Amino acid sequence: MLRKFCCLVLGVLFTFGMAGGGAIEAAAATTLTFSDFFPPTHAQSQLCQAWCKEVEKRTGGEVKVEFYPGQTLTKATQNYDGVVQGLSDVGQALFGYTRGRFPLMEAVDLPVGYTSGQNATKVANAFVQKFQPKELSDVKVMYVHAHGPGLLHTKKKPVHNTDDLKGLKIRSHGTTAKVVEALGGVPVAMPMPELYQSLQKGVVDGALYPLETNKGWKMAEVVECVTLSFSMAYTSTFYVVMNKDKWNSLPDKAKQAIEEINKEWQAKHGEAWDKIDADGLALMKEKGREIIEMEPAEAAKWAKLVEPVIAGYVKDAKAKGLPADEAVDFIRKTLVGLEK
Q1: Sign of the C-alpha dihedral, residues 106, 107, 111, 113?
Q2: C-alpha dihedral over 109, 115, 117, 118, to 10 degrees?
């Protein structure tokens, strides 16, 4: 009888011990939230969704990530602060949406004549690694990436030269607003999610953006012309960042796995930018939109006109104590090196 009683007690203890162990194991798992401004169908959004799944896979379920695309958790302009404040644990958006907040990172977006998303992304990550911007010290940077050449698109009026552009209202943000001014246009600030309707309603006459946007954001439905203004093509740098306290709370093995994923995803984003740029151009051609190739003399003129934008950035950034000359020189030399 005593033996039966002991076995029963041990059985109960074993059962509760197993249940308790399971509860402890479940409690050890961390669930993160990821706020993204891209629509869920966009290639860059899908890559971030894949990042979330890869994190869960490589951490053995120790870290899970809930993905919220299309500004459903925080607005594009609030994304970074949302991560800092813990409204989301991870976030993706543009540095350019909060102009002046990231003065050193603005150097990457200058109109230095980017030729591809892969090269722009490599420049951006090399820049972060070299300069370790203090303005990013309130988050843990997962990685950055940058779109392909930012080009001029217009709703109705084809733009072959600066005379055609003069007085047109062009959606722009951050540094690109100064580019528009330098070329004779009128900059109008607004985030990408607002552009489609603004073009439809005539709030703006055009916009600066990469070719992919014609498909990814359906702009080919509302613009009729694109000017291949590669000589002064800018980029926009995107961040994927994590709340610093949340990052510090993760186990070391999970951190190591995520860091490895981050390195791989940099390249994936750059490759994706170029692929979807090609898709965006193909869609414009399919819809019979006007594709304007600039005359060499005019292209050189545009490149010269935006040089004061770069010089102005250097002057303002140096006044803030930033290594502006070194930053711009690094970007240009890195880009040239990638294109050899």
Answers
A1: negative
A2: -120
Residue 220 in contact with residue 276, Cβ under 8 Å? Answer: no
DSSP structure string for 102-128: -TTGGGGGS-S----HHHHHHHHHHHH
147-161 in b/e form (b: 16+ CB < 10 A) is bbbbbbbbbeeebeb
The Cα–Cα gap between 149 and 211 comes to 8
CB atoms closer than 10 angstroms to residue 24:
9
What CA–CA distance (Å, rounded) separates 167 from 206? 11
Residue 159 neighbours by CB under 8 Å, 6+ apart: 152, 165, 168, 206, 225, 227, 292
| Distance, C-alpha 20 to centroid of its chain | 43
pLDDT lower than 50: segments of the chain = 1-27
Residue 7, classed as helix, strand or coil, is: helix
Closest CA to 203 of 218, 190, 184: 190
Dihedral sign for Cα atoms in the order 133, 139, 143, 149: negative
The model's pTM: 0.85
Tokens of 94: 């543009």
Looking at residue 8, its pLDDT comes to 47
Give alpha helix (H) positions in the chain. Answer: 2-28, 43-58, 79-85, 117-131, 162-165, 175-183, 195-200, 213-216, 244-249, 252-286, 296-305, 307-319, 324-339
Token pair 């203090």 is found at 134
Count CA atoms closer than 13 A to 207's CA, side-chain side. Answer: 29
Residue pLDDT, tens place only, 70-103: 999 999 999 999 999 999 999 999 998 887 899 9
Q: Which residue has tokens 């870290």?
A: 63
Q: State the pairing for strand pair 151-154/225-228.
A: antiparallel
Residue 192 is predicted with a pLDDT of 86
